[in-house]
Write a structure and sequence with these properties.
96 residues
């Protein structure tokens, strides 16, 4: 009986029906690639959404600066230097 699978017919059958043998190592690598790709897309979306997520923090810092400035005025000697340093640090953080 003649073998029906020569190089041409084997490649045609594999095109239409898939390969006769499975490459498990390749499938494992494809799964790892897809998993890594999904994780990188999550990281990308986190980085892209980061400024939007910090808006609440910026508002909190603005309110903290204004409350420090109203509570501890320049007339209070021992607290004014500390509060001035604290508000300057918060302003620098807000500007970044």
């Amino acid at each position: 009986m003649k073998n029906q699978f020569n190089k041409l017919t084997q490649s045609l059958f594999e095109v239409f029906k898939g390969p006769r043998t499975k490459d498990y190592e390749y499938e494992k690598m494809v799964q790892e690639y897809e998993l890594c790709k999904g994780r990188l897309l999550k990281l990308k979306s986190l980085i892209n959404d980061y400024p939007q997520k910090l808006e609440g923090y910026k508002i909190c810092i603005e309110e903290l600066i204004s409350s420090f400035e109203t509570i501890f005025g320049k007339d209070q000697g021992m607290y004014s230097k500390f509060m001035l340093d604290t508000t300057n640090a918060h302003k620098a953080l807000h500007d970044k």
